[in-house]
## 1
Amino acid sequence: MWNTVGTISVVLGVVGIALPLLPTTPFLLLASACFFRGSPAFHQWLQSHPKLGPIITDWEQDRCVTKTVKRRGAMLIVASFSISIFVVKPLWLKLMLLTVFVVTFVFFLRIPVKPPVAEHHENH
């Protein structure tokens, strides 16, 4: 079960690289958590992947994301919720989406940004 959910999450995360409204990072983090429980080999493969691994490693080690990931994530959250709120008709659903947006966006904005390598204390 863990490996199936992990595999689906990797596929959705990779598709999210090309599709602007599908988020990549949450799916990769979910895949990492699933593979951690289901397959150490897949977990290691995902962490060592040259394109996907750094996002996961930043989160697992430092609980942060890069400035680029945060900027893209913020834009995609705003875009996807804006489209959803515009498309739905019932007012109660628009209000629910707006509430979920505010909670999600505030949580997302509180995620720390990884400082550039030059700012690390061992470089001074």
Note: The mean pLDDT is 87.
## 2
Amino acid sequence: MILGMTDPALAHKTDFGRMYSRSTTELPSVPSITTVISQAPVDLGGWFSHMAATAMAQDHRLTEAAGNPAKLRALAKEASTAAERFRDAAALRGDRVHSYCEQVSLRALGRPHRMAEAREELRANGEDAFAARFDEWWELYQVEPVAPEITVWNAEVGYAGTLDLVARIGGRLCLIDFKTKGTDRNGQVKPMDEKVVMQLVAGMKAQESLVDAQAGTWEPWAHGDSPLLLGVAIGETEVRPMRANPEVLKYHWYKFCALRRVWDLQLQVTDAGRALLPIGPPAAVLRPVAG
């Protein structure tokens, strides 16, 4: 499998979410942008229930299992993991699409690439339409890549992340985040979550960018001066770019910084020790014997 932005050299999976180190020889020290954003609560209970019910209703074995409690329990157990299976499959698909996007950028920059292999991997999984739509968007918008898959760091707030692409479009510098999306019943790509704005503004507010992962060499972040922030939804029927509203950026930045503090406090809570301690009944009171 061709690795893309989901496996940057300095990213590590930890008990506290994905974290970044300063070099390949150092331990991780700050959370990733996406880990920080994940501190915001999200209620997925309804979606999990819907996926389980749908999987159960569409299972061809349901009729056979009717009236057989053991078989019904087995089907229900399998259906209960439908949401996780869907999520994992979508993540792998997103990895493949992101990898292809990266290879297209590398080829345009005249750097070594594996674009043909990335395209074939999509085709082998029945996902060639994502690449075709991306190619159409790339040509239509005349994208001029500057830096694909660039890792950035903010020491003041304490986070790091990897941006999908820095590019010029129509002469304007852009920070771009690609989102692989499904298609709705009208044949249109599904909308992106507005959290992409928080992700992009955190990238814009970086202070350094990575030069050499093994040596741990960084340089001042050169692309944070009022770039255009674009979330680009890539689907099988179309690619839909959306611009982050400049009027709301500061609020999304404030929220990101607040979530970064939440992440830090969660670590402190974890390290503080047990939150609940056992307690026994009050000691028996010895009463004097009546004379």
Note: Residues 74 and 263 are 38 Å apart (CA to CA).
## 3
Amino acid sequence: MVFVTKFRHRVFSDRHLARMEEIMRAVCADFETELVEFNGENNHVHLLVNFPPKVALAKLVNSLKGVSSRRMRQEFPDLVRHYYRANKLWSGSYFAGSVGGAPLSVVRQYIEQQNRPV
């Protein structure tokens, strides 16, 4: 999955991304799913999530984006200026793709190689 910030604004530093990963891992655990890989840049994040068919993708995405937005706003007051209209950090859209046919090692390598901001 890929989530982008509202208006693709450059929002995240390494400390933000580290905390974002912790938050998203906790949300995945609540859904009984596994966050296999996480990485991001200053305006988007990549997640490789392993989840069973009983989990509705839209509900998982909604929770990941909603919980992370709320907690990041609470924990990092410096991010408040990046929240637009109704306190939204994330764009309303997202990308989700299935990697059932691709070797997991290839997908993991792609996500690991995404550049994090300095």
Note: The chain has one domain: 2-112.
